[in-house]
Amino acid sequence: MDENKSDPTALNFDNPNTEINRVAVKPPIFWRNKPKLWFLQLEAQFANSGISQDATKYNIVVAALDENVLDFVVDILSNPPENEKYDTLKKALLNRLTDTEESRLKKLLTDLELGDKRPSDLLRQMKSLAGNSISDEIIKSLWLQRLPQQTQAILTISNDTLDKIAEMADKIIAVYSSSEICQIKKVGSLPNSASSFDRNKLDVLQADIAALTKKFEEFSRNTRSRSKSRGNDRRRRSRSNSARYEFCCCDIFYDSSTKKKRPYIPESFRKIVFNSVHNLAHPGIKATTKLLKSKFVWPSINKDARTWTRSCLKCQKSKVTRHVQSPFQQYHNVSKRFTEINLDIIGPLPSSEGFRYCLTIIDRYSRWPEAILLPDIRAETVADNLLKGWIARFGTPLVITTDQGTQFEAQLFQELSKLIGFKRNRTTSYHPQANGCIERWHRTLKASIMCHENESWTRSLPIILLGLRTTWRADFQSTSAELLYGENIRLPCDFFEDTKFQPQSEFVQKLKATMKQVKPIPFSYNCKQKPFVFKDLQNCSHVFVRTDIIRQSLQPPYHGPYQVIKRSDKIFTLLIKNKNVNISIDRLKPCFSDNSPETDCAINHKSNPVDKPTSPVKKKIRFAPLPIAPSTRFTRRGREVKLPFRYQ
Question: What pLDDT shows up at residue 268?
Answer without folding.
Answer: 85
